[in-house]
Amino acid sequence: MSEWGYGRCGPLRKKKTQSRHVAPPLAVAKLVFVCDTAGVTGFWQHPVSGARTRTGGALAQRFAAQDKEKIRAALVEAEKTGNSGFVAALEGGAHGGTLVDIHVERMQMGSRRQLLGFMQTAAPRTGLLQGAASTEEGLDLASQVLENIAEGILILDRDLNVISVNRAYLGITGHDEAALIGRVPHGLREEALPAVARKEILRAVGTDGHWRGELQDLRHDGGGFTELASLSAVRDKRGQLNHYVAVITDMTQLRAYEDRLAFLASHDSLTGLPNRFMLMRRLAQAVQHAGTAKTPMALLYLDIDNFALVNSTFSTAVGDEVLRKLAHRLQETVAGWGEAFHLGSDGFGVLLPKIGARSEAVEMAQSILAGLEAPLPAAEQNLYLSASIGIATAPPDQDAQMLFRHAGHAMHAAMRRGAGSIECFSGGETDTSESLRLATGLRQAMEHGELFLHYQPYFDLYSGSISGAEALLRWQHPELGLIPPARFIPVAEETGHIVRLGEWVLKSACLQMRAWQDAGLQDLHMAVNISPRQLRQPDFLDRIMSILDETGLLPGSLVLELTESSMMENPERTRAVFDNLHDLGVGIAIDDFGTGYSSLNYLRQYRVDYLKVDRAFVSNLPHDEHQQAIMRAIIALAKSLNIQVIAEGVETAAQWEFLKTLDCEQGQGFLFARPQAAAHVEELMRSGATFFRPRA
User: Which of 104, 183, 383, 393 is deepest in the core (most CB within 10 A)?
Assistant: First the structure.
């Protein structure tokens, strides 16, 4: 007889053996499908042609009404016990009423569990599901359906000896099949894995049905490498262990991607200087140290005077060349005293972590201006530039955000004085009064009907259809007019109003999505931003469940968007919250990905469904090679963890075309649709609008 394994990757090689019988997942597998634990199918495989159909609908929708609950119960059983089987009748169409046998196996795929299903007719019938086939044919189909996945697959017996291996694993390691069969994989041997660790892995597999973690493997040439391994137990219907399935991902390239991402996310691609994100991180550390050590520090905020003239007179290419040379000159000037940062466009920052007095910061600013007096060669001539510089110090400022804002106020004051000026923040230019006014206004804004939501659709880049919408908060103040979120959201965070405000947004968005569903608009997701302060609330999960109950919205229709920084404030608690939300069916998206930690390590630890790539990494596509590298790395990272990618800020057809070549699943931006009222979004949905006909 032949023993076979099946997994996420290519046809597994079979080996004739006399070992004990291992029950196949289904005697004659005529259709194969993959779905998640909620029953949403990823694709179906045609039995004859092998053609794969991407779907996304619920598995239960394909069957008669009286069997829908049976199917849901069977999926739950497979999720809990590892497998299940049932007989159900197909719904409508040419095969309506046909009885089919279905067997479902639980598999650990990447960062989440998936269910692999096999279907055959329960009785002979003409049509798609009809036809005699051998067990061998069905098992061939079970292996072919996963032939495009890049992970290595190993089938192990109960003693962890290899009994089957796929081509991908052989390609990863360089081993011959004969050298692996009948032996324990290197990553599970005693020389690579302590006996205690191996015992713990097998205990986890026995208890939970699977284990996931990193192992050290060995290539044929003797070189070691780290692999991400998922080990799952496969049992028969009596619950007896048959064999193990190991899914292997080579971490070498992913680690290289992570290192590249970490650099590109923290440094400006044009000048090579650390970017604004790194400035804020270093600034927070410096402010904290200054407060503890009672030693002053300073931040200088520079704006190159009249830099727009360089771009308009020559070209943006010349402007980029000038910025690179300015960055190099600034680095040379502050070396040994501080660190230079590029904040975007013609803005730079200089952090002086330790100074004796404010006068030293002023002296550094004067040195920078003196350095700019020397001619800067560009476009075959010498350019003479100057800068306006603002200075803020700590103490008295004890908060990084406040110090950065004060340095900006001082810089604008210097600009008003004229080119080449230096200003120190004195407390005169403060937005305290406006913040107080906004904080007071937020108390009544909801009761007075001043707050409302706009919705920005995001599109499936393959089908061209609207796949969901993001709820965006707006405030129409009776005196101040339409207030941008960038002005009032930070105030709401600082004052704590964001918790009540966030609940109002969540409930309103859920009600709107339920209204769309009741109107016949199905298969959509509503994305809602969650603030760090909301996530910190002890009853956060209870509030989510309560709002879903109040609005009647199914959890699977809701996606919560959180920033990377908010997730890392309390990793253990956040992980527990994510697990509960995932079990509930609520989707999780990381917003503005690439501007924060961008760590492969934390992505592996959290159950995340979507990565929303920040617009900063899309804006110069497809021409900017650095942004190309970032997007390729992010998408490769996400694919390896079975996470969908949504590109933000897509504004040109060229960007959209390039993103499709990278296999980016979804996009959002002005090319497709701007944020707009619910009624207008509904019109788009009903009209069947796609990004093939971009909307202004």
Answer: 104
Alpha-carbon distance values, 398 to 96, 292, 401, 406 (Å): 70, 10, 9, 12
Give the chain's mean pLDDT: 80
Q: How far is CA 267 from CA 333, 338, 594, in A?
A: 19, 17, 11
Stated as kind and residue range, the H or E segment containing 361 is helix 358-373
User: What is the separation of C-alpha 105 from the centre of its chain, rounded to a whole number of angstroms?
Assistant: 27
Half-sphere exposure of 481 (CA within 13 A, CB side): 1
- Straight-line distance from the first to the last Cα atom of the chain, in angstroms, rounded to the nearest whole number: 63
Rounded to a whole number, what is the largest CA-CA distance in the chain? 91
Other CB atoms within a 10 A radius of the CB of residue 463 amount to 12
Q: How far is it, in rounded angstroms, from Cα 464 to Cα 462?
A: 6
- pLDDT tens across 95-135, in order? 556 677 787 777 765 556 778 777 766 533 333 333 333 44
Instruction: Dump pLDDT digits (tens) for 140-181.
Output: 544 554 445 667 888 899 999 998 888 889 989 999 989 999
Tally of CB atoms within 10 A around 373: 11
Task: Output DSSP code: residue 340.
Answer: E
Contacts of 24 (CB under 8 A, 6+ apart): 4, 135, 138, 139, 142
Task: Give me the amino acid identity at 205.
Answer: V
- The vertex-206 CA angle with 173 and 144, nearest 5°, equals 45
Peptide bond into 274 cis (omega under 30): no
